[in-house]
Amino acid sequence: MQEPEEKRIALELLETEQAYVNRLHLLDQVFYTELMKEAKTGKTVPEEVVKMIFSNISSIYQFHAEFFLPELQKRMEDWNRNPRIGDVIQKLAPFLKMYGEYVKNFDKAVELITAWSEKSPPFQELIADIQKRKVCANLTLQHHMLEPVQRIPRYELLLKDYVRKLPPHSPDRADAQKALEMIFMVAKHSNAAIAEMERLQNLWVVYQRLGLEDDIVDPSNELIKEGPIQKISTRNNSTSEKYLFLFNNMLLYCVPKVIQVGAEFQVHLRMDVEGMKVRELEDTEFPHTFLVSGKQRTLELQAR
């Protein structure tokens, strides 16, 4: 007799989980442990750097090795008597929130590995030495570190498939459906955390380019668009290069600095978006021109 489809998917979940725990073991018990041991001698990198690279990988490893994998194994051994995994995954789902921290830290971790590999040859040598071992399968540390980032989307895909293949009256239908919703929420939570972090990072870079003016630096602002623009001077019919930053609440009219020490731009005018009007102009001499008028003043600008 052929195995039912849902059992095949449940077995795939178990097999990928075993491989995943081996990968986590490599990250936590081999890379992290050995790099930490070397860091303590003071010859490679500061201990703090190693901790920052591996974030909360130890908690993730312990959770999967000591709780989730054994639960899954027990359940699959008992499948013929109790064919279900929905309840086990429901127990797992809340703990997956701890991935938020790891995923958020991932880019920073990769940057640190690159930077310290250049700065500290012994650090680079130790990583290269571990990477040569059979257990690494010719893959880099960065490659192995990507695995936890991809694990939650993998659960989501397998579980979606599992729910689809369940017979209509399966005793696991309600539990599996609920488990899928929970995993979906965790994946969303982790993606939202990354998006928010990227937004704040990009915002900070923009604030630095503007010279960190006190009344402009606000984490709740949202940058919508930025780019160069020509300011038209009606007095002598000429144009000069300016730069605009449009936020959700204000338009910053800036002048590029000739000598870029610190800031890249100087803010000449800040216009509130509230009550601001934009009107296109028909000008044969200057095409693509428009007027921006706010409470503060009116600008005649020309786009590319």
TrEMBL record:
Keywords: Cytoplasm, Cytoskeleton, Metal-binding, Phosphoprotein, Repeat, Zinc, Zinc-finger
Biological processes annotated in GO: cytoskeleton organization; filopodium assembly
Subcellular location: Cytoplasm, Cytoskeleton
A GO cellular component entry from the record: cytoplasm
Keyword match Zinc: yes
Entries under InterPro entries matching the protein: DBL_dom_sf (IPR035899), DH_dom (IPR000219), FYVE_RhoGEF_PH (IPR051092), PH-like_dom_sf (IPR011993), PH_domain (IPR001849), SOS1_NGEF_PH (IPR055251)
SUPFAM superfamilies cross-referenced by the UniProt entry: DBL homology domain (DH-domain), PH domain-like
UniProt keyword Repeat present: yes
PH domain: residues covered: 222-304
Principal subcellular localisation of the protein: cytoplasm
CDD domains: RhoGEF
Domain DH: 5-193
GO MF annotations in UniProt: guanyl-nucleotide exchange factor activity; zinc ion binding
Name of the protein in question: FGD2 protein
Organism this protein belongs to: Regulus satrapa (Golden-crowned kinglet)
